[in-house]
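Researcher: Re-running this chain for the archive, since the previous output was lost when a drive failed. Same request as before.
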Amino acid sequence: MTDLVNGKKFGRLARKGVRSIWKSRYDIIDENDQPKYQINEDNGWVKVFDSFIGEIPILGLFIGYFLNPSYTVKDNAGKEYFRLKKMPSLVGRRFQLERLIDIDDEDESLVVLRFLMMVLLERARG
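Model: Regenerated structure tokens:
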């Protein structure tokens, strides 16, 4: 991600490993190309059940109310900073971002922007 006005580089989001039906993991890389945080899916079974049950007619319509993934941001030491949860809903896609501990403003912007990008990438995956 780059600020087009100033040309400042904010870093990037990198998917860790190959595309998986099990769990998603993304690395948040800072402007110096150093991995700073990781976004990990909390429960891989949610994605597995969603992919199978979501294909069943009629039942697939209600799956968004019961199977809701969550993602946690951790630093390289394993300390948790944020948790993103998909809220139960039949049609809409609402998310709740919870700050677990305080973090400086620059890193918070780095994480929140990467969460937005990750949600778009995960939505494209299904």
